[in-house]
Amino acid sequence: MKSTFRPRLLNGQTGDPALLLNLRWQGRALLVDLGRIDRTPAPVLLPIEAVFVSHTHMDHFMGFDQLLRIFLARDTTLRLYGPAGLADCVEGKLAGYTWNLTDEYAFTIEVTDIGERQTTGWRFAARRRFAREMVGPPRPFTGVVVADPVFTVEAAPLDHRIVSMAYAVTERTHLNVRTDVLAASGLRPGRWLNVLKDAVRAGAPPDTPIEVTPEDRRPLAALRDELLVVTPGQKVAYVVDTLFSPGNVAKVTRLAAGADVLFCEAPFLEEDLEQATRRYHLTAAQAGALARAAGVRRLQVFHFSPRYEGRYGEIIAEAQAEFAGQEPRYGGLERGRAALP
């Protein structure tokens, strides 16, 4: 079956972190982290509606200006989520430019600061020269930062000497069309299939009419039962810039539990464990151990240090060996331990 999420590391495994999640057939996209994106064509970036920032170190946030440049003249709202203080960073970025000619622009940026116990929303509108405005009162932080009809996004704060936010994007329900049945019925694919899927996800009544053509309306239940295969939704988890510590391990394994794919940093080889620990980063083996303990289906490591140029294959091999449990260095994780070997 075709997947709804189409994840892609815009800068590969060695460049700045920026994970694009396209929602197949919907013309929508999410971006996790905002490193360098100036080499990505604008049409690839324009479907982005929300950005989930781990933290604002330069290699995770320097792409903000490029995204701003692409979206500035558009009638849309771009939403950013990240650790408390993200709105301060956005405000600082915007303050570096002059906005005397944007009074008629409809573009707006909405920022959600994710604190330990609550989230706070801020708005920066181009027509108001990006003056900062609070959006309603703070809300309790329960772990879920976005509850879309199609997906949810959970966040977990990790320790990188500052907060580095990890994320999990989960499809609510995975709906595939039985293309053979569709063809045999004589019905033509079209936007009505997305309308049908949206109605199913929303829990609409079985007799809800779905307009297949202007002359053909059919009840939701009949179309659903005939054309759709309903399965549990996909899950994509993202972890970057974090120390291998008991607290972080517990948060990562809980957040990423059962994910279809875990995108996890692996800047260092295990031979440089001391350096990794001092820099509050993971080794490749630690990334593999986290993936194994979380029970994910696939591990994709990235964010490699350039010090290993020419040896990147060793990073992948080390991570995958630990993930597969081949002579594991971190075999205690399944028993709830995060001790170093």
Radius of gyration: 22 Å
Indicate the low-confidence ranges by residue numbers: none
What's the total number of strands? 19
Q: Tell me the structural class.
A: alpha/beta
**Percent range for β-strand residues:** 25-35%
Continuous helix count: 11
Helical percent range?
25-40%
Tally of separate domains:
3
Beginning-to-end CA distance, first to last residue: 40 Å
Largest sheet: 9 strands, mixed
Describe the structure.
This protein is of the alpha/beta class. The chain folds into 3 domains: 5-144, no CATH class; 173-232, no CATH class; 242-335, Ribonuclease Z/Hydroxyacylglutathione hydrolase-like (Metallo-beta-lactamase, Chain A, 4-Layer Sandwich), CATH 3.60.15.10. The protein is built from 11 helices and 19 strands. It has helices at residues 42-45, 58-61, 64-71, 86-95, 179-185, 191-201, 220-227, 246-255, 273-278, 284-294, 312-324; strands at 5-9, 19-23, 28-32, 48-52, 77-83, 108-114, 118-125, 132-134, 139-140, 144-147, 151-159, 163-171, 173-177, 209-213, 216-219, 228-232, 235-239, 261-265, 299-302. Strands 1, 2, 3, 4, 5, 6, 7, 8 and 9 form a 9-stranded mixed sheet that branches. A hairpin with a 3-residue loop joins strand 11 and strand 12. The protein is globular, with a radius of gyration of 22 Å.
